[in-house]
Amino acid sequence: MRIAPRSAASALLLVLLPFVGASCGKSGTATVSGGAPTPGPGVPGATSAQAEVPAEKPPAEPGKVGHASSPGSKPVPPILQATRRNNVEAVKNLLEQNGVDPNASLDDGLSSLHVAAGEGFVEIVKLLLEKGANSSCKQAAGATPLHFCGQTGNLEVAQALIAAKADVNAQDKDGNTPLMVASTHGRDELANLLVDAGAQLDLKNKVGATALHGACRFGHAEVAAVLLARGASVNAQDNQKYSALHCAAHANSMKTAEILVANGIDVTLQNVDGGTAFQYAATKEFEDLAKYLQELEVAAGGPAANPPQQGDGQQKPPAPGGKKK
Question: How many domains, the chain?
């Protein structure tokens, strides 16, 4: 019996490229299926020597989580099969039978609650929780149902999980939280709900990225505004010293950059290679954003105020991916 890949539950982007290469570095992804991430700055297993300038292309698609069981693994539990089909009556009948465990899962820990939360099957989520499903259960890569819910942003599912005492600050094996997932996917209402429920704004994952990095990395200005209004640290830097403004530059998002500036971000912050957000935008040839950031940086007395002179031995910044033009 197979569970075919499908929408949210089968392609959870724990990303989180966000949280990729220091949120904005070379390509690389944190996955939730146990697959190895593509090397990149800040990605577990990558070396700091790889952290130069962000790649031109976004990181590859993360591994999928709703995969079928492999040959020789235990059979797919009937309750998981019924959940996958959103068969509410079948799930209800199974839960009323003696011996049917609401926490039954695949070998990798993927449970009915993970699938229902990721697909937005509200009735099944509530049924499972009423019968004792673990609201904070983790699959092999450490993702909980709230992580899965973070991609689609279903508020009713999230509310049910939170009411059942789900851990809003649970971190997967790469350190990503449900708030990071919601922020990376532009779920501003869910982000607000999670913060209301106690989600910590400035928790960092293994590459040092916060939820704000994730929101800015994809140009989700509305989410960035929510996080900052709730008290997120605007000047937080990841392990490679990338700031949220570097991430906004990666997304070529003027609106996101303006929100960060309005909230007092230090436009002169430099990554480990000495690059500012202006230099990042200029390297990627985002002319309008680069001009805006350059003017701010010059006014703040940053590196752009004293550009290298021709013939002084300075080289042009490496192109995205670390290659010189």
Answer: 1
Residue 137, phi then psi, degrees to nearest 5: -60, 145
**pLDDT tens-place string over residues 102-160:** 999 999 999 999 999 999 999 999 999 999 999 999 999 999 999 999 999 999 999 99
Is residue 325 scored above 50 in pLDDT?
no
Domain membership flag for residue 251:
no
pLDDT tens, 239-279?
A: 999 999 999 999 999 999 999 999 999 999 999 999 999 99
- pTM exceeding 0.85: no
Tell me whether residue 259 is in a domain. no
Q: Which domain holds residue 73?
A: 7-235
Q: Transcribe 22-84 into DSSP letters.
A: TTTSSS----SSSPPPPP-TTSTT--GGG-SS--SSPPPPPPPSSPPPPTTSPPPPHHHHHHH
CATH code, domain with 45: 1.25.40.20
Domain assignment of residue 140, yes or no: yes
Contact at 8 Å (CB) between 83 and 62? Answer: no
Strand partners, 111: 105
DSSP 217-278: HTT-HHHHHHHHHTT--TT-B-TT--BHHHHHHHTT-HHHHHHHHHTT--TT---TTS--HH
Residue 293 lies in a domain: no
Which is nearest to 248 in space by CA: 274, 300, 213, 276?
213
